[in-house]
Design a protein that fits this description.
single chain; outer membrane lipoprotein receptor (LolB), chain A; 11-stranded antiparallel beta sheet; 3 helices; alpha+beta
Length: 219
């Protein structure tokens, strides 16, 4: 249970009720922002697979503590995504176009969720897949985007007033790799003072994905 809770702390910024996660929209219609978004979309369209190590650090203001996870993520377009946590406890989550499965070493159990029966989960998962695969053109309306830097590309996503995410999220900053082919770092700032930093390292783009990426450790 502990590992599953840690993973869903990362998913928190998707909002509640199955609303959108990130939306490529600039309130001011800034052509510079749109040009950057278009460029990133073109670059990431060329990405078929991704393998990347990650370190996720969650800062909990109310407890004054940090929760750190380490692991590896795999992405294979169009719809396969897996998240393997090694520390502090082993946890595996695998998603495809219709099903999410997860296993953790604490319980030793496997859980499956069919998206057809969980529309809110399906909506959140779809948005996560779109974000990590670079399908920005399919996202709309929920966030205003500002360009913080062009080298490296840094974008700030602020929830629009009244949006689903605005009750929880203050701002999300996304930093891209030097070659703009993938994400290097995501920083999530919540209205309650908590924050999450997700850093990607040793990222391999368009490399073969091992079969083990799609297996649950406990199955």
């Amino acid at each position: 249970m502990f590992a599953r809770i840690l993973f869903f702390l990362f998913l928190l910024y998707s909002g509640s009720g199955g609303g959108p996660v990130f939306c490529a929209h600039s309130a001011a219609g800034d052509p510079d922002v749109q040009a950057v978004i278009d460029g990133l979309t073109r670059q990431m369209r060329e990405v078929a697979t991704v393998r990347s190590d990650f370190v996720q650090e969650k800062k909990l203001r109310i407890f004054g503590q940090r929760i750190i996870m380490e692991g590896t993520m795999y992405l294979q377009k169009p719809d396969r995504f897996s998240w393997h946590v090694r520390k502090p406890l082993r946890y595996v989550m695998i998603m495809d176009d219709r099903l999410m499965r997860q296993w953790d070493e604490e319980s030793g159990s496997v859980q499956s969720f069919v998206f057809d029966r969980n529309p809110s989960l399906a909506a959140a998962v779809e948005q996560i897949q779109q974000w990590f695969s670079g399908s920005y053109e399919s996202l709309s309306g929920e966030y205003d985007i500002s360009l913080l830097s062009e080298e490296p590309v840094m974008l700030s996503f602020s929830p629009k007033t009244g949006s689903v995410s605005s009750a929880v999220i203050e701002r999300v900053v996304v930093i891209f790799r030097y070659d703009k082919r993938y994400i290097e770092r995501i920083e999530i700032f919540e209205r309650g003072g908590d924050s999450t930093v997700l850093a990607f390292t040793n990222t391999a783009v368009n490399a073969a994905i091992p079969p083990s990426a799609w297996r649950l450790s406990g199955s």
